[in-house]
Amino acid sequence: MENKTNANEELISKKALLERYAISYGALYRWKRKGLIPEEWFIKKATVTGQETFFPRELICQRVELILNRKEEVLLDELSRKLQSSTPEALVISTRYGEKKLLISDIHRITLSRKDGSSVEITDKIFDMLKEKNNEC
Q1: Structure pTM?
Q2: Residue stretches of the chain with pLDDT short of 70
Q3: Which of 11, 25, 48, 124 is the most buried (most CB within 10 A)?
C-alpha cells in the first residue's frame, strides 16, 4: 500500500516494507531501538482499517538496504553509531503527550499561536538561535 503526504514525499506502508525486504516486525523494531531507523520516519496515519504505520519510501528503503547489506560485516551497534553521527540537526518538541522530533531541513515555518487568536511567525528567531549555538561550538 502506498500513499503520499505531499507532492514530494511518497510513503510505503510497514506491511509493504516488511514484505518487500522479507524482514520481520521484530527486526524492524529492533533496528528502531538501536537507532538505525529514526523515530520520525515512523508515520502513523488513520486508514479505513484503523491506524497504520508508513515510512518515507526513499529514506526507509535506502536505510533497510544499507542495514541488510552491512549487517554481516559490521555489528548493528557500530552501524548505529556511524549513522547517528551523520544525523542532521533536529528540533525536539517535548509535551506531556510525548516527544516529536523534526529535522531542521524539513521545517518551513514555525508559528506561535496566541490565546487571543493572533499568531506570530518565529521561524527566523529559532534559526538565529541555532546559528548562535553552532557558532559557540
Answers
A1: 0.60
A2: 1-9, 85-88, 133-137
A3: 11
